[in-house]
């Protein structure tokens, strides 16, 4: 579809669930909508492609959920995750509107997996997409196109003007478009090492980008340049321990390393940074990400013995193998005596052969964004809305999560505030 230079009623920057919900909602509200996505068509969907569920409150069991997850429970979980960093008014709105999402998303073609179909973990808090995030994204794109949303891939928003001007870099070269309203739903800047370095220092260059490589943060920087108030903080984000052999961007959920409590984790000098069995439960991935990031060179090794090997969860790549402690020490460039002492400390790794995986910190998203109000309008430090500018998704999620993390909440924030931003932008555009 050729890019029309000129004016659109609503421009949406982004290509994931937040952008698509905004575009669909604005179009259903009667606005002409253009969506600008930096990714090529085969990589559309942002980090959402690697997702599988979203967190929703509900007062009774259903085909999607066992048990119930009342609004008060969701609100309490959100408050715990966000600490002092979340906006209570936005949190209350998120919880309330989350209950509408199964029906609304189904109306946009999204199919959820039911418990009767099997294969789901027990979860009263989240609903799972049939076919995962990629299938959900494909459904939303089909609906958006069917409604007449004009979608342009490989069009990266590089700057914003006050009052609805958008500068972009696309296949036809630089261009400027104008709109009655602009929705920024393009995520953070986790794929921009130079921008990361401003808050993360040298660690920025050692982080593995787990999601889309197109999250460079240019639209977010443009919002800050126009006076948007900040939420969250630089140098904060969601880290996960990932297989260091899978260091290319866009690896997603399958790159994370599990089963660390069954073995030994050592840094490059053979020291154990923590007691392995102290990190368990649903938050273990994120906690290990922080641990590995604090190791020298942001690198560690996971080691298991023959007894633990059969208990490890499935992984994309099998661990490397060493037939003896001396061979393991050689492979890890750590003296065998140092490894032996570490094994003696943990008392669990003893029987050869040994199995090992290099670990690095993988970054999912940055926890630094803009503040918005209940209409998803971007606001300045005094709480005044910036003219014609709205935001949804991870670009504003720190307004609710601060620097915290709550499983499934990011997609809920994206869908709820994407829908709100689209509806409100249509009224202004």
Automatic annotation (TrEMBL):
| Domain annotation FAD-dependent oxidoreductase 2 FAD-binding: ranges | 10-409
- Pfam family of this protein, just one? FAD_binding_2
Signal peptide residue numbers: 1-31
Cofactor(s) needed, names only, are: FAD
User: Which keywords has UniProt assigned to this entry?
Assistant: FAD, Flavoprotein, Oxidoreductase, Signal
Supply the Gene3D superfamilies for this chain.
Answer: FAD/NAD(P)-binding domain, Succinate dehydrogenase/fumarate reductase flavoprotein, catalytic domain
The record, for InterPro entries, names:
CobZ, FAD-dep_OxRdtase_2_FAD-bd, FAD-oxidoreductase_2, FAD/NAD-bd_sf, Succ_DH/fumarate_Rdtase_cat_sf
NCBIfam families associated with the record: CobZ_N-term (TIGR02485)
Q: What is this protein called?
A: FAD-dependent tricarballylate dehydrogenase TcuA
The source organism is Phaeospirillum tilakii
């Amino acid at each position: 579809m050729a890019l029309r230079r000129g004016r659109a009623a609503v421009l949406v920057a982004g290509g994931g669930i937040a952008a698509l919900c905004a575009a669909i909602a604005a179009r259903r509200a009667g606005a002409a909508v253009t969506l600008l996505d930096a990714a090529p068509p085969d990589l559309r969907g942002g980090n959402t492609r690697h997702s599988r569920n979203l967190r929703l409150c509900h007062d009774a069991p259903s085909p999607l959920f066992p048990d119930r997850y009342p609004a008060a429970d969701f609100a309490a979980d959100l408050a715990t995750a966000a600490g002092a960093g979340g906006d209570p008014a936005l949190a209350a709105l998120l919880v309330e509107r989350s209950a509408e999402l199964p029906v609304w998303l189904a109306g946009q073609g999204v199919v959820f997996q039911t418990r009767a179909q099997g294969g789901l973990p027990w979860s009263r808090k989240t609903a799972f997409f049939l076919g995962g995030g990629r299938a959900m994204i494909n459904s939303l794109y089909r609906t958006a196109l069917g409604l007449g949303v004009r979608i342009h891939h490989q069009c990266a928003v590089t700057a914003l003007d006050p009052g609805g001007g958008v500068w972009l870099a696309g296949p036809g070269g630089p261009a400027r478009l104008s709109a009655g309203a602009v929705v920024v739903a393009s995520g953070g800047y986790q794929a921009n090492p130079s921008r990361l370095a401003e808050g993360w220092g040298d660690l920025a260059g050692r982080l593995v980008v787990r999601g889309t490589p197109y999250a460079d943060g240019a639209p977010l920087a443009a919002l800050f340049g126009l006076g948007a108030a900040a939420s969250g903080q630089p140098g904060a984000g969601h880290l996960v321990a990932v297989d260091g052999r899978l260091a290319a961007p866009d690896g997603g959920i399958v790159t994370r390393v599990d089963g660390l409590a069954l073995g030994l984790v050592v840094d490059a000098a053979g020291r154990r940074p923590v007691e392995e069995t102290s990190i368990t439960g649903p938050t273990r991935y994120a906690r290990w990400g922080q641990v590995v990031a604090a190791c020298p060179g942001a690198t560690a090794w996971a080691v298991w013995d023959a007894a633990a090997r059969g208990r490890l969860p499935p992984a994309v790549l099998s661990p490397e193998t060493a037939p003896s402690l001396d061979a393991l020490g050689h492979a890890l460039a750590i003296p065998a005596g140092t490894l032996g002492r570490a094994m003696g400390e943990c008392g669990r790794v003893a029987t050869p052969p040994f199995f090992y995986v290099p670990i690095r910190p993988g970054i999912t998203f940055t926890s630094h964004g803009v503040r918005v109000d209940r209409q998803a309008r971007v606001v300045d430090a005094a709480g005044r809305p910036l003219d014609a500018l709205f935001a949804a998704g991870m670009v504003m999620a720190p307004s609710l999560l601060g620097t915290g993390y709550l499983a499934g909440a990011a997609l809920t924030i994206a869908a709820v505030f994407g829908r709100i931003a689209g509806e409100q932008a249509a009224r202004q555009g």
